[in-house]
Amino acid sequence: MFISTCLFILVMLYVSPNNVDAGILDPFNWARSDNIEIASLPFIPWLPFENETRCYDELGCLNITRSWFHLINRPLNIFPLPRFVINTRFILYTRANPNEGAAIRPNSESLTDTIFQSEKKTKVIIHGFIDTILANWVKDMKDELLKHDDVNVILVDWAGGSLPLYTQATANTRLVALELAYLLNYLIENLDMKAEDVHLIGHSLGAHLAGYTGSLVPNLGRITGLDPAEPYFQGMPPHVRLDPSDANLVDVIHTDGKGILLLGYGMSQPCGHFDFYPNNGKEQPGCEIAQTPLIPLTVIKKGLEEASRVLVACNHIRSIKLFIDSIGSQCPYIAHQCSSYKDFMNGKCFICKPGTTQCTIMGYHLDSSPMFEETDISKRQFVETIGSKYYLNTGKENPFCHRTYRISIELAKPSIAETWVQGFLKAFILSPNGIMQIDLTPSGDVKLEHGTTYTTVVTHPADLGGNIKKIEMNWEYDMNVLEPRTLCLLWCNDHLYIKKVYIDEMEFPSRE
Question: Which of 208, 316, 336, 402 is an active site residue?
Answer without folding.
Answer: 316
